[in-house]
């Protein structure tokens, strides 16, 4: 059997397995679901066929390297994996959103391979100890066993799912001595031994997302390994975060988004003194944050609490956040904010207070000379010469606009203004004096009478003098907002990476969130 036949026969067998497994599912399902099941089957088979075509094309590019190899399965598949060839054994449940662009990842599920001797069967085809990524989705299995992983000596990324996985025990993963990242997703975990990951000294990233911690009685207490740098608890139901939850001295990134947190307890982060980034975004419930929660975090660079039903931060002791670069408080219910506290963050590069409808900020009271990005809900724009480094300015509800407020040696590249009560007819080019070589500028309003056709034409002319136009757009019929904006040819990615003069952590913040 030649190399091409080996590749084709592998994928043919995979398609046969999919067909056989789907027929079993159909036999156990109500007729009303048959169309859905067959659609998923067809989607999955089409995906497998695409991988077959990609594999054959790739084989053509490397076959000259393999001409001297013996014609046997083990050598051909070993070579394929060394060259990041594509092998997938996906679950039908994943058919709708398969990561088809990823290559070199082995995906195993007991829907298409029998649980017994699964890895032994695969080991006859490929060298499992050369695989760097493994995705396991065993349905109907309540716990994992360390012997499953003893053949995977090179695994760096592990993805674990399963509709019945309940238990993570000590030493489950002790064979994965080169592991760097472990991702758990959609697994209804009820118990996690606090020493589950003990001994995994190369593990840097740990993720429990999409319902892994939804059991209301589940208590998460993790202590090992000490070198862990990032934990992601996205989309769970963690009611509280306490001092006992995590004990990772070297942890740098903590993501608690979409958890319905009710309480961040006293000294909650006191065992995480080296934290650099905290995300508590889209919480979905009003959080009670203890005044001492953020004490001692003198290495924290990013604190983002957007859309988490926060009514005030004035009671929080934030004096230790001496290295803060980003403070995100958008889309909350803030009515007042103590700017004396905010002004202590002398290295702050991003202040985001937009989306707090009742929060009016006196821009003259902000004394942050290193600001690069300022986003406010409601303010009066006066002279901004105290912000010489400012590159991004966004105001949702502009109360007034002083003439020549930009007329100084400024760095503004991106300007977005929402107008409501201003006499728009009085706004002319002099209001934008000092702005030049911009990347983006926009005026918007919920009042279509303000941005009527005459004004839109006038602002189009003004914008063309401020920016090397690649595109100028007006929208008057989409939702409640009408707007006019102009942009040059610089892409969003290039704007963040090449023009915005921001620190590495701030770039990471913008890449994690949908700005600009």
Topology, element by element:
Blueprint: H1 3-27, H2 34-66, H3 73-82, E1 105-108, H4 118-123, E2 133-137, E3 157-161, E4 167-168, E5 181-185, E6 191-192, E7 205-209, E8 230-232, E9 240-241, E10 253-255, E11 263-264, E12 277-279, E13 288-289, E14 302-304, E15 326-328, H5 339-342, E16 350-352, E17 373-381, E18 392-401, E19 414-419, E20 440-445, H6 453-464, E21 471-475, E22 482-487, H7 492-499, H8 504-512
Parallel strand pairs: 1-2, 2-3, 3-5, 4-6, 5-7, 7-8, 8-10, 9-11, 10-12, 11-13, 12-14, 14-15, 15-16, 16-17, 17-18, 18-19, 19-20
Antiparallel strand pairs: 20-22, 21-22
Helix pairs in contact: 1-2
N to C succession of SSEs: HHHEHEEEEEEEEEEEEEEHEEEEEHEEHH
* Rg measurement, Å: 28 Å
Q: Give helix % range.
A: 10-25%
The major sheet is characterized as: 17 strands, mixed
Cα-to-Cα separation, first versus last residue? 55 Å
Extended strand count: 22
| Tally of alpha and pi helices | 8
Strand content: 15-25%
Structural class: alpha/beta
Low-confidence stretches: 80-105, 109-116
Q: Please give the oligomerization state of what you see.
A: single chain
Tell me, briefly, the overall form.
Answer: globular
Report mean pLDDT, rounded to a whole number. 80
């Amino acid at each position: 059997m030649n190399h091409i036949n080996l590749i084709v026969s592998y994928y043919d067998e995979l398609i046969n397995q999919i067909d056989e497994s789907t027929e079993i599912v159909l036999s156990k399902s109500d007729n009303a679901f048959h169309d859905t099941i067959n659609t998923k089957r067809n989607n999955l088979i089409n995906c497998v066929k695409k991988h077959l075509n990609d594999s054959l094309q790739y084989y053509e590019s490397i076959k000259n390297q393999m001409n001297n190899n013996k014609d046997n399965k083990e050598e051909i598949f070993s070579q394929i994996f060394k060259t990041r060839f594509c092998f997938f054994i996906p679950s039908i449940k994943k058919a709708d959103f398969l990561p088809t662009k990823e290559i070199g990842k082995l995906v195993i599920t007991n829907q298409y391979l029998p649980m017994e001797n699964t890895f032994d069967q695969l080991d006859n085809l490929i060298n499992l100890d050369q695989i760097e990524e493994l995705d396991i989705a065993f349905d109907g299995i309540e716990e994992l066993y360390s012997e499953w992983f003893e053949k995977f000596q090179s695994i760096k990324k592990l993805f674990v799912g399963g509709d019945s996985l309940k238990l993570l025990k000590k030493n489950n993963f002790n064979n994965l001595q080169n592991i760097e990242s472990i991702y758990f997703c959609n697994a209804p975990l009820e118990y996690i031994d606090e020493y589950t990951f003990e001994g995994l000294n190369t593990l840097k990233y740990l993720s429990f997302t999409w319902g892994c911690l939804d059991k209301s009685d589940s208590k998460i207490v993790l202590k090992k390994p000490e070198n862990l740098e990032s934990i992601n608890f996205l989309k769970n139901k963690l009611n509280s975060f306490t001092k006992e939850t995590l004990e990772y001295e070297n942890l740098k990134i903590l993501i608690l988004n979409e958890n319905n947190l009710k309480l961040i307890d006293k000294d909650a982060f006191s065992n995480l003194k080296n934290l650099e980034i905290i995300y508590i975004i889209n919480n979905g419930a009003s959080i009670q944050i203890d005044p001492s929660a953020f004490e001692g975090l003198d290495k924290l660079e990013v604190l983002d609490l957007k859309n988490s039903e926060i009514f005030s931060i004035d009671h929080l002791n934030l004096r230790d956040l001496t290295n803060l670069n980003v403070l995100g408080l958008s889309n909350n219910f803030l009515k007042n904010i103590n700017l004396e506290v905010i002004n202590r963050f002398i290295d702050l590069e991003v202040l985001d207070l937009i989306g707090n409808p009742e929060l009016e900020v006196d821009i003259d009271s902000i004394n942050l000379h290193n600001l690069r990005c300022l986003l406010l809900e409601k303010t009066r724009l006066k002279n901004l010469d105290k912000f010489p480094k400012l590159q991004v300015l966004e105001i949702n509800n502009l109360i007034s606009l002083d003439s020549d407020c930009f007329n100084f040696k400024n760095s503004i590249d991106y300007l977005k203004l929402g107008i409501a009560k201003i006499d728009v007819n009085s706004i002319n080019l002099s209001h934008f004096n000092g702005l030049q070589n911009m990347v983006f500028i926009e005026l918007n309003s919920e009042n279509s009478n303000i941005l009527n056709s005459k004004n839109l034409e006038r602002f189009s002319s003004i914008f063309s003098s401020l920016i090397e136009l690649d595109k100028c757009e007006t929208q008057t019929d989409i939702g409640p907002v009408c707007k006019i904006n102009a942009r040059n040819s610089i892409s969003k990615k290039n704007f963040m990476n090449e023009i915005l003069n921001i620190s590495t952590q701030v770039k990471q913040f913008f890449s994690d969130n949908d700005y600009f």
